[in-house]
Design goal:
Elements (H helix, E strand, L loop, with lengths): L7 E4 L2 E4 L5 H6 L10 E5 L5 H12 L1 H4 L7 H4 L20 E4 L16 E6 L2 H14 L9 H9 L8 H10 L6 E5 H6 L1 H12 L5 H10 L2 H6 L35 H15 L15
Parallel strand pairs: 3-4, 3-5, 5-6
Antiparallel strand pairs: 1-2
Helix pairs in contact: 9-10
Bound molecules: 3'-phosphate-adenosine-5'-phosphate sulfate.
The site of 3'-phosphate-adenosine-5'-phosphate sulfate has 21 residues, from helix 2, helix 5 and helix 11.
């Protein structure tokens, strides 16, 4: 039941990727120097991180929007907690953009003092679980659990990289007042991408022309992101188990869990998550036809 130490280590109550972070580096982030203009995307894995990274990159980088610059979004929006990417962030021009899967309590102290901005994206946990299961098969830095039933139990027990989905989401929501934060959901982005792009622009204080907004929305659709090598992760071949195992941008839908979970598995997820989920100020969307 415990995740393999080959893939994760536990630090301060949270599972980190063994080959991509170290406890010392995580601890050093407490005093990471924050600029008021910094923008962080915070998520539990598989909730729409790269999608939101792509949107922010398109909003801020004209060269991405008009196709004149060929810079990977991981370069533009690095992962805060991964040493492998550690760069001299003090030399980055403002506004600096970061992504993170950190739980709220391990983020830089000044972020928890309402400095900078955070966009926190949630996705319904059944789709997260299914997406995570498939992702574990294609990424070499994650432990592959081929038995889906076992993966369901691992996920529900928080025995995966980034630990418990519920703790992550409840943690960020119940400490919202410590942060300057915008909450978004994967499902609302899916239902109204333009609306989500405008919400983000408004939150980060960026005014785009009508044409620029259209361009961001067009390039942030699943179909177009899948074709964009700057955004589809497929140039990260070194992290993949095998090119034919699947795509990072896999399905990009709401409700795909229904194609994977049995009724019993779905009920098991409900049973474990339901009570505490009721404490969240979120209406979860389980199917694309559900009303927001
Ligand atoms: S990660 O590894 O934690 O950074 O993964 P993350 O980016 O959070 O989530 C990956 C899922 O997001 C889907 N995705 C999209 N859906 C809709 N539209 C767009 N543009 C888009 N971009 C990424 C991606 O396909 C993964 O979901 P699944 O369900 O596996 O397809």
């Amino acid at each position: 039941m415990e995740p393999s130490k080959e893939y994760v280590f536990s630090h301060k109550g949270f599972y980190f990727g063994a080959n991509i972070a170290t406890p010392e580096y995580i601890d050093s982030l407490e005093t990471f120097e924050i600029r008021d203009s910094d923008i962080f995307i915070a998520t539990y894995p598989k909730s729409g991180t790269v999608w939101t990274q792509n949107i922010l990159s398109l909003i801020f980088h004209e060269g991405h929007r008009n196709g004149t610059e060929n810079i990977d979004i991981m370069e533009r929006i690095p992962w805060l907690e991964y040493n492998v990417q550690k760069k001299d962030y003090s030399a980055f021009p403002s506004p600096r953009l970061f992504a993170t899967h950190l739980p709220y309590y391990l983020t830089p102290r000044d972020l928890r003092n309402k400095r900078a901005r955070v966009i926190y994206v949630t996705r319904n946990p059944k789709d997260v679980l299914v997406s995570y299961f498939h992702f574990s098969k294609i990424v070499a830095t994650l432990e592959e659990v081929s038995d889906f039933n076992l993966f369901v139990e691992r996920f529900l027990a928080g025995k995966v990289l980034a630990s418990s989905w519920l703790d992550h989401v409840i943690g960020w929501h119940s400490h919202a007042e410590d942060f300057n934060i915008l909450f978004l959901s994967y499902e609302e982005m899916k239902k109204d991408l333009r609306g989500a792009v405008l919400k983000i622009c408004n939150f980060v204080g960026k005014t785009l022309s009508e044409n620029e907004v259209e361009s961001v929305v067009r390039q942030a659709t699943f179909e177009n992101m899948r074709k964009d090598p700057r955004a589809n992760y497929e140039n990260l071949a070194e992290y993949l188990r095998g090119q034919n195992k699947g795509h990072f941008l896999r399905k990009g839908t709401v409700g795909d869990w229904k194609n994977m979970m049995t009724v019993a598995q779905s009920e098991r997820v409900d049973e474990v998550l339901k009570e505490r989920m009721k404490t969240l100020p979120i209406k979860f969307i389980w199917d694309i036809n559900d009303e927001m």
